[in-house]
Amino acid sequence: MYNYLDREIAALNAGGRLLVCVMREWVNAAQQHRCPVGAVNSAFHELGVAEAAMPFHRIMAMLAVHGSRQLGFAPPCGGRIAEGEAIILSFIAQQADDHAGQNAQLFEALVGAERAPAMQEMTKHLGMLLIDQGLLPAEPAYQQ
């Protein structure tokens, strides 16, 4: 998570930028009592990963309804990655390595023991769909 936190969005790869954009739009739409699904589906379609929208929506809905604490998301125009965005990016990015299963306790801390397996499964599903399209978030490039 700390590899993403407070970093410039411009330093992210295309998959990371997509996820930050749709996270922010999803949260913004929900706060304005608009349909979050309708607000972000076109972004997934434009990059050819329409099937990734469903697990993304489930992750966000689970956090919104069952989250043990409120995560911080930046406004759509923000230039840096906020805490909630960094957490989600890191979970999804870890789907490419062998340590993704070690996040079970973190999922429990976020949504409780009852919902943690579903959250982990949706995160894995989303990560695999993004891997298939070459859009898995990578750690931001360091800028000097």
Tell me briefly what this model is:
Helices cover 55% and strands 0% of the residues.
Report on this structure:
The protein has six helices and no strands. The chain starts with 13 loop residues before the first helix and ends in a 12-residue tail after the last helix. The protein has one domain (9-132). The chain has helices at 14-31, 36-46, 53-66, 83-93, 104-111, 116-132. By secondary structure, it is an all-alpha fold.
* Helix/strand order, N-terminal first: HHHHHH
Number of helices: 6
Structural class: mainly alpha
Instruction: Evaluate the radius of gyration.
Output: 14 Å
Distance between the termini: 20 Å
Approximately how much helix is present in the residues?
Answer: 40-55%
From the spread of the alpha carbons, the general shape counts as globular
Give the number of domains. Answer: 1
Task: Indicate the low-confidence ranges by residue numbers.
Answer: none
Overall mean confidence score, pLDDT:
90
Strand content: under 5%
Largest sheet: none
Give the strand tally: 0
Keywords:
single chain; 144 residues; mainly alpha; globular
Task: Summarize the topology.
Elements: H1 14-31, H2 36-46, H3 53-66, H4 83-93, H5 104-111, H6 116-132
